[in-house]
Structures are given as structure tokens and as C-alpha cells.
Amino acid sequence: MKSATLPSLRVEPELREAAESVLQEGETLSGFIEASVRETIQRRRVRAEFIARGLASREEAKRTGVYIDADVVHAELAKKLAQARTRLQKKARA
Hints:
By secondary structure, this protein is mainly alpha-helical. It has one domain (13-93). Helices cover 73% and strands 0% of the residues. The longest helix has 36 residues, at 29-64.
């Protein structure tokens, strides 16, 4: 597959300096920018999918009349978070 280019981008010198200041050893500014674009694309796709799932869930709740109380959802999420923290602590000790 042929490679393509992204448009040139003019920025304030301070932004370029800030970007260069966080480069890791051996990392180029071009590589940093490419990684940043890829991460932003992925984050936006995940956000769009999340919103789509939420809207579909809302429609399903309207259709069926079955709703889950927010307190129940929060309690379940808190439980999952506590379990994840416990797993991480055990892993860190190992």
C-alpha cells in the first residue's frame, strides 16, 4: 500500500517546543504526531460507539418499559471498580 501524507500544520513555536519537550528517547516529532492522530481517531471511534450503545439502550428501555435505577448501576460499577483495584494490588505485589 502506498503511503500518504497529512497536511502541513503551522503552529505557534511554543506548541512545537512543548511537543518536542515530551518526546521519548528515539522518538521523532513526526512519529509523535502520527501516534497522537491515531490515538485521537481511536478515542473518537470509542466515544461514538459508546454514544450509539447508550442511545440504543435508551430506545430499548422506552420500547420495553424496563429501566434500571441509577443507584443500582452505581453500586454495580463501584463493585467492579473495587474488584479491579484488588486485582491490580495483587498483581503489584507479585
